[in-house]
Structure formats: C-alpha cells, structure tokens
Amino acid sequence: MENFWKEHSANATEEEMMLDSNAEQLGKEEIPEILSLLPNAARLDVLELGAGIGRFTGHLAAQAKSVTAVDFMEAFIEKNRQINGHHSNAIFRQADVTKLQLLPGSYDLVFSNWLLMYLEEHEVQELFCKVLKWLRPGGYFFFRESCFHPSGDAKRQYNPTRYRDPGAYNAILQSASVPADDDPHTTYAFEMIMSKSVQTYIKLKNNGNQICWLVHKERRREMDNHGFNTNQEFLDKSVYSLENIRSYEWIFGEGFISSGGITTAMEFTTMLNLRPGEHVLDVGSGIGGSAFHMAQEFDVNVTGIDLSANMVSVALEKAYKVDDKRVQFEMGDVTKRQFPLQSFDAIYSRETLLHIKDKVALLSSFFKWLKPGGRLVITDYCCRHDNGSNGWSNQFKKFVQKYGYHLLSVDQYAKILKQVGFGQVQVDDRTSQFLQILNKELQQLENAQREATEEFSAKDYRLLENTWKNKLLQFASGEHKYGVMYAKKD
Q: What's the CA gap between 342 and 32, in Å, rounded?
C-alpha cells in the first residue's frame, strides 16, 4: 500500500489525492456536499482519518473546537500542515490508522474520506471497534468509500484498492460493539443515521458508487432491539432478511413488499396529486416498487429512505437495471435524518410508521420538510382502541410485541396530524379492503403451492401460509386495523 501511495503522492496535489484529472471541478461541488451531511461541528473535537493534503481539514477546523488530522503518507500530512497549519486548533499526525492508539472517549466526530477501501476486512472491523472506543457517547462517525469499481481516471500500474459492496460495510457496522465499563450487560454500538450516494459523482460522472455513511455511538442493553446490537440488525436478520424479502416479493409482485403490490401503489400514489418535476420523499421505500412507479407514471424525482440495509441493497440492484436518475435510494433512520426545510413537494409512506415509537416527532419533521402546499399520504397498521394496549387482548399484545410494532388508532393519527400543523386531514379505516387483499393473496399463494415450494421450500411455504393466516386472524378480530391517512401543509 505504501508503494502505491508513493507513486501517487510525488507532488501531493488534489489530482493525486483523488486519482482523477477532473479533481478541481469535482472538489468544488463535492466538498460542500459532504460537509452538508455532517452534524454541526461547532464545539466538537474531531478526528480526521486519512486526512491527506487537507481537502476537508481546513473546513473542519474553521468550525470545530479541535481537529486531529491523521495520514500515513508523510508527503500528504506535511502538505496539509503547510495549507492548514495556521489553524491553532489543528493537530497534524503522521500515523498508520491500523496501529493508531488514542485515549478512549476523546472525540465527538470521527471523519474519514476514502480510507477503508485500502484496508483488509479484519482491519476495517478492528478500526470500527477502535472508533467506538475513541468516540464519546452519542458521538458521530462519518465515512465515505468508492464501492464496486474505481471512480477516478488516473492510470495505476498496481491497484490494491478493495471496491467493496456497500453491504460489506453495513455488515461490519452492525456487528461492531464494545463493552461498557460500568455495566457488564451493556455495550456500545453504531446506530445508523444515513447512507447514500454522493450526488456530485452522479451529476458529473453518472456514477452512483461513491457511498457515504453517518452513524452515531449509542448505548445498548442486552434486551434492547430483541437481543440484537441495533434495530437495523433486528430488521435485517429477522423481519426483512433477504430470504423474507424474496418471498414477500414473490407474493406482492416485482419491486413490492407491501400488500396489494402495484394495485394499491397506484391507488395511494394517485392521492398525492403529483405533478411533473416535483420531489417526493418515500419513507420506508422498501425495494423500490412505489418509487419507480411514481417516477415513471408522474415524472417526479423520488428520494427513497429505508433503515433496512437488505431492502436498500435490493432497491439499488433494481435501480442499476432501471437506470432512472429520477430515483435515488438511501439507507437511514428517518427519525434521525435531517433534511433541509421545505425540501419536498410530497411525502409517501407505506406500512413504516408502525416501527416508529415517537410519531409526533416524526410527523412534525414531515411537516417541516414539506413545502407549502405539500401533500402527505400514509398507510399503516393501526389499532382499534385510542387508549392503546390497555384495551388489547393478550393475544394481540403478544402479536404486537413479537414484531416490535407501535400502533395508533386512525383517530389518534388524525389528532396528531392536526396537532403538528397539517390541514385538510382525512383518515380512513380501510380494514375491510385490507382483509380482501389478504384473502386474495392467501388464495393465490395456496393455488401456487407447488410453484412456491419449488421456488423456496416446503418449510418456507408453510411459514408464508401461517404468516398470512395469522394476519387474517388479527385483522378479522377487529383489534388490528388498517388506516389510510392524507394531510396537506396549507
């Protein structure tokens, strides 16, 4: 690796750092974009790994309490010192990150740009655990990598870079944890905030393979998230495992993992009254069916966000085949994501808010993110009683607990939508329609038992059949409801 960078650091230029002849133009647009994704660095202690010649060091130092810039190439770190040494809060250190030792709890933000792709997988795993130790509780970790293939046009006699699938980084993030010093039953782990493609590279190079991540350090007890490190890991290894996604899509149709497939997507997206050129936020975008439909049917731009790494991975595969630049997907926790105010003309969400406990906070964010006149359509699992679980049967309580749901009645939805500022609020109990859809899907599944068994297995078929029968039982009992909510920002 050292020989590779000696070859590309002779003059310590931006072109050498980025391995691209168009580095100047890329940097003009890329640097502001990357900085806009970071938390406010004011009063933060920042650790910059792989700092290079300081493309970001000066910007970080202009805001932060302190910046420690680390790079293992002496030529790069000396150039960085020459450019940014006038910042009294900047420290420059030549070191190999795989051997770097720092005091625990020393930093609020660890920033890395194009570093991990030069490390072995076990080195990435070890570094993630060290970052958890170096961060203070609640601290942030931002990193950006080239995935799948090279992006720069520099000729390389030897290229040791590892252009990983983003899923590889997601898996390492989910598995990383360190024990808490004060409690043997508590650990620290990373919680996802967002992961997305760098838009500058899509715009200037038609390349969506520059991926960045923003996560933060959270304290976890053994019983949190059903025994998994994070809620994301719980989703990806249980409800939305790749096997489950594949089987759900087989039932719902190409691109869909929500009941009714394209039929209900057509009905509910029409409620948004979309116009060409508008921007839609698809919350809980799944594997992309509704997002692609809206772009193709209404000529709108769609940003899809989903916490499940598996969902987004499948959606990105489909996006690569469809090649529709109007549709972008990002992995993230919508409760932690911060979009600019008045960014969207419409927000659309299918069976997602059932996973969100604090719906008041999220719906308040929806209101802020919508432009004046913006429309909101939500479909969600609901409950019958306004007084919550106090009126539920034990059987329904167990069902809700098993899947980690947080349910409201349709009337509670209406109340909260008005409370956070929405007007023209309309809520509708569509349980009877949902029951018809479930019965139809179960009948189709039973009629195709042989095909389903061949596609998956007899065990998987029985699991699917039992899942649908259990859903029917819960909805037929009258306790489980299905709501459709519409609101407008006046």
A: 20
